[in-house]
């Protein structure tokens, strides 16, 4: 969903006006677009993306390009990349260096070029995180799963925001939806999620 609003700004007022002064301010307006994430079935998200992969974030650059760029190594590819390949994607906001993510990326129409020639990674093929960031999912160790013992409750998982990314009904996510987790983001066991992506890739 896309919403548009008008922002009104008073320009030229540097100090409070006295009663005798005439206002010197000018009114300027600009239109701001506010977008909301779409709701995707996981299979539709997979189909739309050019690259689907498990990656490890190696570095990030917030200065050299028109937007923040992450540099990552592909650990496992499900679509559009090769294991061991280096990929550059963004906007790189909130990712942690050295952490692993499952990413669904759209190829940018052109390579991204640094503001200063030869700066940072240079001119590189670039892909975009889409759906307001919900097409990237943290992959880490979590103790939120079902089971009677710690060894059962703790496992590697993938954090999926199920308010926006809909999983097949056969896939269990934790904690239960009744717990109302922040932004509807819940955990799926990584081996289950990877098996699902493997099936979609075939």
Low-confidence parts: 1-10
Cα separation of the termini: 31 Å
**Order of H and E elements:** EEEHEEEEEEHEEEH
Most strands sheet: 5 strands, mixed, barrel
Q: Count of helical segments? A: 3
Strand order of the largest sheet: 4-5-6-8-7
Q: Output mean pLDDT.
A: 86
Radius of gyration: 22 Å
- The shape is globular
Count of discrete structural domains:
3
Strand residue percentage: 35-45%
> Helical content, roughly?
10-25%
What class would the helix/strand composition place it in? mainly beta
* Strands, total number: 12
Please characterize this protein's 3D structure.
The protein is mainly beta and 202 residues long. The protein folds into three domains: 2-35, no CATH class; 51-137, no CATH class; 138-201, no CATH class. It has three helices and twelve strands. A hairpin with a 6-residue loop joins strand 5 (69-79) and strand 6. It is globular and about 60 Å long.
């Amino acid at each position: 969903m896309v919403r548009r609003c008008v922002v009104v700004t008073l320009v030229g007022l540097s100090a409070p006006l006295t009663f005798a002064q005439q206002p010197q301010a000018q009114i300027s307006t600009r239109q701001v677009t506010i977008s909301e994430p779409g709701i995707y079935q996981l299979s539709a998200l997979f189909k739309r993306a050019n690259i689907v992969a498990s990656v490890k974030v190696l570095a990030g650059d917030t200065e050299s390009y028109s937007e923040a760029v992450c540099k990552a190594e592909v650990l496992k590819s499900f679509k559009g990349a090769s294991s061991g390949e280096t990929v550059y994607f963004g906007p790189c906001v909130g990712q942690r260096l050295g952490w692993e993510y499952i990413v669904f990326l759209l190829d940018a129409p052109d390579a991204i070029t640094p503001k200063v020639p030869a700066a940072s990674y240079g001119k590189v093929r670039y892909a975009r995180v889409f759906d307001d960031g919900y097409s990237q999912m943290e992959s880490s160790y979590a103790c939120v799963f079902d089971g009677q013992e710690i060894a059962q409750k703790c496992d590697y998982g993938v954090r999926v925001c199920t308010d926006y990314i809909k999983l097949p009904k056969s896939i269990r996510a934790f904690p239960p939806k009744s717990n109302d987790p922040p932004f509807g983001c819940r955990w799926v066991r990584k081996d289950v999620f990877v098996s699902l992506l493997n099936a979609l890739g075939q």
